[in-house]
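In response to the reviewer comment on reproducibility (Comment 2.3), we provide here a single inverse folding case reported in full, input and output, so that an independent group could reproduce the run without further information from us. The C-alpha cells appear first.
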C-alpha cells in the first residue's frame, strides 16, 4: 500500500490536531510534520519531500495566495489542499488559479476530507460543494464588486476588513506602507466605499470575514 505523506500547515494547533487524528485514522495516510505558519511550511516543504501539503486558512487574512505563489517560484510541485472556513467563490477562484490542488470547506465530512487528500495526492482536482462554483464562473452580472479586484488588492482588502493596520499589512505582504495606502484607495474606489468601517461591513455581508 502506498503511503501518502502529509505536511499540515496552519496557525490553529487545535485544527491541526483534529486533522491529524482524522487523517491518520486512514491506513494509507501519515502526517509527517506540522507547520504553524506559511513561512514555516515553505521551509519544511523545501527541506524534505511531501506527497501533499494541507493548508488550513483559519483566519480571513490567511488567503494562501502568497504561499502558493512562493511555492511555485521555488519550483515545488507538491500539491496543496486548502482547508478554509471562508469558501468565498472569488477566493476559491483565485486559489485554484494560483495552483491549489483542491479546496475544502470547514463543513466537510471526515470521509470527504480523506477522499480529497487521496485525490489531490494523486494529481486529481478536489473541490468541495462549497467551492465548486468557483470553477464555473457565472455571468458578469452575478459577480460581486470584489471580483474586480486584483489578487493583491483582494489581499489588502481582506486584511483591512479584518482590522489589520497598514504597517502590519505592509510587513505581511512585503510592501511599503505607501503602496498599501495606494491599494487601499483602489479597493475603496472599486467597491464604492469610503472608510475601513464600510469595508469591514461589506466583507461581512459577503461572508469574507466573520
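Designed residues, in position order:
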Amino acid at each position: 500500500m502506498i503511503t501518502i505523506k502529509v505536511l499540515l500547515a496552519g496557525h490553529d494547533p487545535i485544527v491541526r490536531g483534529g486533522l491529524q487524528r482524522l487523517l491518520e485514522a486512514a491506513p494509507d495516510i501519515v502526517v509527517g510534520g506540522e507547520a504553524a505558519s506559511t513561512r514555516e511550511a515553505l521551509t519544511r516543504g523545501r527541506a524534505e519531500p511531501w506527497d501533499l501539503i494541507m493548508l488550513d486558512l483559519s483566519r480571513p487574512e490567511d488567503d494562501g495566495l502568497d504561499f502558493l505563489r512562493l511555492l511555485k517560484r521555488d519550483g515545488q510541485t507538491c500539491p496543496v489542499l486548502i482547508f478554509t472556513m471562508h469558501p468565498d467563490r472569488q477566493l476559491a477562484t483565485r486559489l485554484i488559479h494560483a495552483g491549489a490542488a483542491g479546496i475544502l470547506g470547514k463543513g466537510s465530512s471526515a470521509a470527504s476530507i480523506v477522499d480529497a487528500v487521496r485525490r489531490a495526492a494523486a494529481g486529481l482536482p478536489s473541490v468541495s460543494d462549497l467551492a465548486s462554483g468557483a470553477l464555473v464562473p457565472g455571468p458578469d452580472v452575478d459577480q460581486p464588486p470584489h471580483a474586480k479586484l486584483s489578487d493583491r488588492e483582494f489581499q489588502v482588502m481582506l486584511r483591512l476588513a479584518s482590522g489589520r493596520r497598514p504597517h502590519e499589512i505592509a510587513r505581511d505582504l512585503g510592501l511599503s506602507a505607501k503602496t498599501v495606502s495606494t491599494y487601499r484607495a483602489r479597493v475603496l474606489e472599486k467597491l464604492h466605499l469610503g472608510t475601513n468601517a464600510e469595508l469591514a461591513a461589506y466583507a461581512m455581508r459577503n461572508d469574507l470575514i466573520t
